[in-house]
Structures are given as C-alpha cells and as structure tokens.
Amino acid sequence: MSLESQLQDASQDFQKLQMTLSKAVDARQQLEAQLSENQLVKKEFAQLTPTNTIYKLMGPVLVEQDQAEAKSNVDTRLDFIQSEIKRVEAQIKEVESKQEAKRSEIIQIQTALQQQQQKVSGPSA
Question: Which residues form a coiled coil (predicted)?
Fold first, then answer.
C-alpha cells in the first residue's frame, strides 16, 4: 500500500473519529440539560408539603400522581442520567485517545511521505 493511500485511509479514519466524538459531546450536553432539569424538579419537590398535589402530564391530560411515587421517579431518573453521563464521558475519553493515536499515525505517514519525496527530487545543490 502506498504512503498516499495510507495517508488517505488514516485521514478518513480520523474524520470518522471526529464525527463520533462530536456525537458523544452532543449526547453529553443533552444529558447535562436533562440532569439540570431533573435536579430542579427534585428541588421543587423538596419544598412540597404532604397536602400538595402533584400532576403528571400524560398526553394532553394531567393525571394526579402520588407524591412518593413522583419523588422516586425523579430520583431514579437522576441516577440513570448520572450513569449515562459517566458512560458517555468514558466513551469521549476513549475516542479522544483513538483520535490522538490516529493523529500520530498521520504525522508519521506525512513525515515518511516528505522523506520519500525528498529522495525522489534528489539532493539540492
């Protein structure tokens, strides 16, 4: 395989890694927004008294929901979101590591290509 084709393949792989990283960062941002929203809901729930009524929107209808069940649902959602954030962060680190390795590979190929071109053009006077 020629150095040019190796460079092209490595560049394509690097671009794929960039797209994967971009998607993972977007997912992380969405999860952060959901986390913030659910933390706000939990904070509001903390201010409720036992006599307050909680309603849940189901389609176009508000349905009364048990306070303990609603609080439990929010806590469960928070745990899930936090575990998803950890998973996505690990994925981001992995992709960044692969990206750095691919970047090094590209630099090595470019260096080898430049050396090859210098040999072909011959020594300069």
Answer: 14-44, 71-105
The residue whose two tokens read 């959901």 is: 34
Domain encompassing residue 13: 3-45+80-115
User: Does some domain include residue 120?
Assistant: no
pLDDT for 10 beyond 90: yes
Q: Rounded distance, CA 66 to CA 74, Å? A: 12
- C-alpha dihedral over 8, 9, 14, 18, to 10 degrees? 100
Which tokens is 85 given?
Answer: 């954030």
**Residue with tokens 């069940």, as numbered in its chain:** 69
Residues 25-76 have pLDDT tens digits of 999 999 999 999 999 999 999 999 999 999 999 999 999 999 999 999 999 9
